[in-house]
Design brief:
Length: 154
């Protein structure tokens, strides 16, 4: 499942699963990290580009990466997680032990944007009106001149 060409960002347990799947070592940590933590960048990379060398993040784990898989390099570390962020830049595989998607990680949106735009190469072209126009077009392609009864909840 992880052998495709698409960029991958493993978040928290996703980083651990990715590490295990590619032959790295995940083990119980001597100290569980839950809540606020500080990580230090240890390498320049696209994922953490233009961010502070020290980042406030939200952790929630009791296991940690003891040895990244072959080809992966450390990007950031915390006191309890020597591999708080890792990457195989060549294959565009990234992992973070923290949660960039929550408000408790102040620069999490910038981390996700770096992954989406700089690493995955996506473009910001979506808008609600474009979604509606696309949905109407696809429905008209499928239905043609026929009528549609729609019941929508939520």
């Amino acid at each position: 499942a992880l052998a495709g060409d698409a960029p991958l960002l493993g978040i928290c347990y996703g980083m651990q699963a990715m590490t295990y799947a590619f032959g790295g070592i995940v083990a119980p940590s001597s100290a569980r990290e839950y809540g606020h933590a500080l990580i230090q960048q240890v390498a320049d990379c696209s994922l953490l580009r233009d961010l502070s060398p020290e980042l406030s993040v939200w952790m929630s784990h009791s296991d940690r990466i003891e040895q990244p898989p072959e080809g992966f390099v450390p990007l950031a570390a915390s006191i309890n997680s020597p591999y708080a962020a890792i990457a195989d830049v060549q294959r565009r595989l990234y992992g973070v032990q923290f949660h960039p998607e929550v408000a408790h990680t102040p620069q999490g949106g910038a981390i996700l944007a770096n992954f989406i735009f700089a690493i995955a190469g996506c473009r910001a072209q979506w808008s609600p009106s474009a979604f509606i126009d696309d949905a109407i077009f696809r429905i008209r392609q499928q239905v043609g001149a026929e009528r549609v009864l729609l019941a929508l909840s939520g």
